[in-house]
Write a structure and sequence with these properties.
Two copies of one chain form a homodimer.
Chain A: H1 3-16, E1 26-28, E2 35-37, E3 43-53, H2 65-81, E4 86-96, H3 102-118, E5 122-130, E6 136-146, E7 161-165, H4 170-195, H5 198-206, H6 215-222, H7 228-236, E8 243-246, H8 251-262, E9 264-269, H9 277-285, H10 290-296, E10 303-307, H11 312-316, E11 321-329, E12 334-337, E13 343-345
Parallel strand pairs in A: 4-5, 9-12
Antiparallel strand pairs in A: 1-2, 3-6, 4-6, 7-10, 7-11, 8-10, 9-11, 12-13
Chain lengths: ~350, ~350
């Protein structure tokens, strides 16, 4: 169905009918000038926001809309968890060009609802409007935490251990794989067009690239998970990180933020960078240095955090958390110790949409 | 300066240096995964968000960036005031195409800061990223109010008086004037190009259309003000509206929202629609029905609210507030009483970006 048949308010009604709110703190959701929340007494409120633009942040030739919706929510919840807070509400704004149908936007919303349900988050409002070209998605997430539980980027101290959850570089390798297959597919279409072969064209339409053995890196790119489970595990283990952030632009870039805001340096060890087998295999196939991918890849949405050295045994015993180095005095700089014992200055080569590459 | 010379973090640093936070409830602003707020005990939090797209919501050929920034903030504060709440914080997300320079974004921010300073609002964070074409602006505003002070759209009761602040249709007439001058200018440029006259081209570059006597309608379009002053006046007069919203899409459209959500009908009087002289003069010049402009024009950002009939004397005594009709039972429908006493059903012909016109 064409969106223009429904108009803004018809589309909002249609999307809103599947949205119910569950948090006690959500008093009114969609339908007034503002949503109304009742913050828990004595708690701090945290707020984060992201703006995703078609062609810059996502490519709809290979990203299904349902996955895109899921990811758009998850990347914001990831920021809330990175404060050691619990996400409670999100607003969702969309600008939609005329190439989209009502069903497309319902797919996108289905993914958003799924991500919200996973973490008990309410969709409380937003804006639904038109765009001349492409899709724009703006999400704002709101969470809460006790003041003493909040973890900022600025609290790392020399001798603190540097930890990361999960593994690094997989989402980046998934992106490289999707981009490669897109180029191949486009070349085949171009060839079929030149030869004028209808059968070849038909065959292309129904073929899917063979991604077997690469499912993990694709999932990491297309359907990332915010690590609320790690926040919960740390809490249960009685660990309060001294600093924390989520890895969205790449480990190097995030480490530079933590060290700058904590006024420290750091040493991390190449051999300790956690890697999945599929990440390493794909890097080898594409002739890329897997450590570089792990350091600068981005979109991992894992947690990077620091804990006092005295918690070494406790943190090392946690499944899926890896100690990769330690915090130093600021004058020591930021260094990567390579497998051969060499010391290299860390550079932020992570994703920077506004920088010339 | 090219934005690519600074990159995302350099640009954020540059913009953030002029931003200080003043609200006691703003604990941390820009610089971490989330901003941190400390909501006032016992108060409700309200949240609203808007996504503005170049070419759909604004035309940079005649909208100065500083005005655009001011307006982008004001339209969100207007939603907060429409809940009878006080705005406290905003997040600002921008997606910027390569045609913009650092100085452009600083201009945009200067306007945003000005609007925020006017109402004591803190800019607490956002996202600054790239776009393939044009500018996208996403603002989320956060405010607070005591639970018993909040005014929803759903509380209007039969016999309540319908009131509007200020006057209607001026912003729409300002837009028509700007659009007309744009067409004229483009035709002159086209003609100069065809004739190959360099002098003509030079002359065009330095000419400004003569807007004297039209300053008010232009200001209403380019630099709207959120009516926080009316909220304050009503509070001082001891008036608690039964329902309220701001007029962004046009009076008819907003009245339909209030009547639908309050399950009522309404009668409004054409002769009571508040109009400015410049609005009427411009409508006549463009051969438009001024009442239609006032009913459907949009972007007035005036407040539409209802009060019990018993407050007639009090509300009528308030400067810049006008009683335009009253709420009826739902089965009476929504009607406009024309100057000649005729009764016409109200239709929402206001701005709907997703509807075919």
């Amino acid at each position: 169905m064409e969106i223009s048949q429904l108009g803004e308010f018809g589309l909002i009604d249609r999307l809103a009918k599947d949205i119910t709110t569950k948090n006690a703190s959500t008093i009114c959701g969609i339908g007034d000038d503002c949503a109304v929340l009742s913050p828990t007494e004595g708690m701090r409120t945290v707020v984060t926001t992201d703006l995703l633009m078609e062609g810059v942040h996502f490519d709809l030739t290979y990203v299904p809309l349902r996955h895109l919706g899921y990811k758009a929510i998850m990347v914001n919840l990831s920021d809330v968890f990175a404060m050691n807070a619990q996400p409670r509400q999100v607003t969702v704004s969309l600008a939609i060009s005329s190439k989209f149908q009502v069903e497309d936007i319902e797919e996108l919303y289905a993914g958003m609802r799924l991500a919200c349900e996973k973490w008990g988050v309410d969709i409380i409002g937003g804006d639904t409007t038109a765009s001349l070209t492409g899709l724009a998605i703006s999400i704002t997430a709101i969470g809460e935490a006790r003041s003493e539980d909040l973890v900022l980027r600025s609290g790392a101290k020399p001798t603190d251990l540097i930890c990361v959850s999960g593994n690094l570089g997989a989402a980046y390798m998934g992106l490289q794989l999707l981009e490669r297959e897109k180029v191949i597919y486009n070349e085949q279409v171009e060839e079929a067009r030149r030869s004028g072969s209808k059968e070849q064209m038909e065959a292309l339409r129904s073929t899917q690239p063979d991604f077997s053995g690469r499912e993990y890196i694709l999932e990491r790119q297309l359907k990332p998970e915010a690590r609320g489970d790690i926040i919960e595990t740390l809490r249960k283990a009685g660990i309060h990180p001294t600093s924390m952030m989520d890895i969205s632009d790449g480990l190097s870039s995030e480490l530079m933020h933590i060290c700058r805001q904590s006024q420290t340096g750091c040493r991390i060890y190449e051999e300790r960078l956690p890697l999945d087998y599929q990440t390493a295999a794909m890097a080898e196939e594409l002739n890329l240095n897997v450590s570089t991918c792990a350091l600068n890849g981005g979109e991992d949405y894992e947690l990077l955090f620091t804990v006092p050295l005295s918690l070494n045994d406790t943190v090392s015993a946690i499944e899926d958390v890896h100690v990769i180095g330690y915090i130093t005095e600021q004058d020591k700089g930021l260094a990567l110790i390579t497998r051969d014992g060499g010391e290299h200055q860390l550079k932020a080569q992570g994703w920077n949409p506004l920088k010339e590459s």
